[in-house]
Amino acid sequence: MKQVIKNLYTLKGGEAQERVNEVRTLLGLGTTSDSTEFVEHAMATAVNDFLVASGSGVFVKKTLAQTKTILGLDEIVVGTSGAKYTLASATSRSVSSYTTSSFATAGTISSVTVNQTMTGASATNSAEVAQFVLTTAVKLGQWANAVVGKVDMTTAGYSAGIVGAVCAEVDFPSGGITGGSGQYHCFEAELNLAGATGGVPMSFLNMNVWGANKTEFDTYGYIFDIQGVADHATTKVFQASNNTTTHALRIRINDTAYYILLSDTSD
Asked: Of the four, 82, 87, 176, 203, which is 20 to 30 A from 243 by CA?
């Protein structure tokens, strides 16, 4: 009879469970099993329930949310500061995502969205939605980047509007800045000179033109393309000036130093 019950438990659906309960009732065993040799269908009480071992030979039911917590899916951790994950080769990745989309109507297509909402007012904390830190105490190769943004047009890609490998945007509050405090920038660049540099070239921005048709940049390109400022006659940001230059800003073009003339007087 025990084997008959075990065979019934290999069936699927509620009808099999009913037949098992009838047999157990006839045997005076009740409808609740304490056997560790099979798992009852009745343990699942909702869609996406999981059976998880709570000990040797013992299973308990867990909800989807409880199972995600057990698997650590609420927080994705790959390695730790004390036990880092080792990349075995140049093609190894700790996290990879390859997506495609044929969506052609109005809308924004994104492969990854990371949204951090701050709810506690503070004058001392710091907020960074994503940190990318490249750490090294050895000589690096031809280039090293903590973050890479790239748009690959392949052979026939183009755009009806603006293309940018990286977009930086700051949205000011519609109600104004409280107290008029703080500084606000689309891009913040810092150089931390902790020790002697040996006189190596350094800058806040490096720009390089390359490719088979790079000479077209000489005809059509701009170092900067600034839009949205008012005419030079009505603005202090872009203005006509007849004042004597008092300073110069050094830049480097093709390894040669040049100086942009500046005036400390506004018209």
From this structure: 203
